[in-house]
Specification:
By secondary structure, the chain is an alpha+beta fold. The protein has a domain of about 70 residues. Helix content is about 30%, strand content about 25%. A three-stranded antiparallel sheet has the order 1-2-3. β2 and β3 form a beta hairpin. It starts with 20 loop residues before the first strand and ends in a 16-residue tail after the last helix.
């Protein structure tokens, strides 16, 4: 794939968002990502952004993200996912919580 520079215009009024959960849905022609902020200590989450992309772009995103995670881990150490952390804290070997996301189809 040819690499090229692209000038990106970031509007001054574009607010960054924080998401600590993500929901992924897909159909034959698109992937949709719903970025959520789960409110600590509650069973509520607020959607912060919804992004839809083509399957080809989703595949490219997964490859770029995997490479970025490898680079991050080489600099800062291994990232342990939530299931691994909960499994180490819970002798049953099962994650100690289950999350159900409602309100999006």
């Amino acid at each position: 794939m040819e690499k090229r520079d692209i000038a990106v215009n970031l509007p001054n009024d574009l607010d960054p968002v924080y998401a600590n959960r993500i929901q992924v849905a897909y159909k034959d022609d698109e992937f949709t990502f719903v970025f959520l902020h789960e409110i600590p200590g509650t069973n509520h989450a607020r959607a912060k952004a919804i992004v839809s992309i083509s399957p080809k772009h989703a595949k490219n995103l997964s490859e770029v993200l995997a490479g970025s995670v490898r680079d991050y881990e080489s600099k800062f150490g291994e990232i342990r996912n939530a299931v691994e952390q909960k499994t180490n804290n819970d002798s049953s070997g099962e994650p100690s919580d289950t999350v159900t996301i409602r309100g999006y189809s």
